[in-house]
Amino acid sequence: MQALKLLQLDYVKLEGDYKIVPKSLIWLHWHGFSLESLPMDFDIKRLVILDMRFSSLKQLWKDAKCLPNLKILNLSHSHSLLKTPNFSGFPSLEKLMLKDCIKLVGIDQSIGELKKLIVLNLKGCQSIRKLPKTIGSLESLEELNLAGCSRLDDVPKELQDTKSLRVLNLDETSICESNSWLSWLLPLKRSKELGFSWAYLPCSLVKLSLESCRLSDGIMPNDLSSLPSLKCLNLSKNPIHSLPQSIGCLTKLDELQLTHCTELQSLPKLPISSINGLHAKFTLFKGRASTLPYLFYFKRCVIFGCEKLTEFQDVFKMEPIENFEAQQIKSLFNLDSIGSNKVQIYNYLTDTRIVDSPKVLHERGITSTFVPGNEVPVSFEHRYKGPKISFSVPQYPDEKIMWLNICIVFSLIGDNIMDFLPSVEITNESKETCLAYTSSFIRIPETQSDTMMWLIHWPVSTDCQLEGGDPLSCLVLPFDLEIREFGIVYGLESNITSEFDLRHSSTGEEDIARNIDSELMERLLKLDPSGNVRVQIYNRLEDSNRVTFPQ
């Protein structure tokens, strides 16, 4: 056994002389070690890995010991461990694992001599209150895990000297509330101006986790530009209402976790230029254009449980329906008939249900709402009983379609609305392109037999312009919805009418306006003497537009 390299003795109780253990060992795997310390005659100088998880150790040795080759020391889940060894005898140590050592009260000052230490895991060490200042001497340290160190009330400012630190986990600590933490995170001259700041955190940080740290708006940093390398930020389960605009400075950020931030109300614009797979504008692929909210492309932006979130800049915004101004969609229903009754709304992005007054949703330039109703209004030119409509765009000279209004009357087939996302697809058969809109929200009918109207105001971009004669096919997905009726109407803009902006005519300019009306009518009739033309009329009193035949 003199050549033995690996010895595994899990939960074995040895009696007698430990000198019989071969000196050739480089890996000792002894879970459940029953003694309170290792015997001094235990000669393991050649060890590279010492794994003694779930042990009964109170201390590793009573006196200092030299293990010059030791690279990994794992004493995790040793619930009786009170103190760490003197580390001066471990010059090669790279990983120190002390996870769930619940009685450990401190770390030996000699830890600063571990110039090769890469990983320090103190997760769940509930009794640790302070870390030694020498931690700033760990020049190779890349990962520091302090999650669950619930009594930790001091992190030395020397931590900023760890220029190699890439991962810092402070989950479930109260460190953000600590005066000592603030004392080194805040420059004294500017602390009153800026509030909480992470200016002194190592700029090398790639991952920062502050889950369940009781981080509030009052101590949320205003300036995140000092963390230019940050790729992952976890702020889950904190009572924050918003994030600072400076998060846009984190151009390398590709993972943002905000799970169960139940007070979160709004989010600023994210640094989308660097987010993997994220498309801020229309996504064009194989002739298809999609206006799907870009949060779905940001696979690692997690906002589940944020039930109060009503605004995500450039993604979506919800507002009370009575505050909505746009006449193009507001004129499609009787606002008074909706009333102020509370309704149940399901948010697919946050996976939450809220009971609130009726809302209007804006996302990626499209506006929609859900209101009670059982039939498509007569103002919709194209109507059909079912989930699909096909028609050709009429040909009118000098006109183009500026927007589409869509009305869908539906009821739910099943009870599980989480199984689908309500979507509308508009396919231009001649150009082989497709516009797709998927709503992030749906209003839940009180009963399964109740019908709802889904109203959508959809501006048509210049990238996807519809022209006269284009055959269009409009489809509602998924088929789990029972589509009772489907209607669509479009709004036109005339190049001629755009030359005369009647909106700016004052009362004293009525004669001029009448002359313009007369001239406009003459020009329209010259285009088509049969009178088969339509004009867009603006009503200044009602602040509304409508497209109709000349009058």
TrEMBL record:
It holds the Pfam family LRR_1. InterPro entries: Disease_R_plants, Leu-rich_rpt, LRR_dom_sf. One of its GO terms (biological process) is defense response. It comes from the Eukaryota. This is Uncharacterized protein.
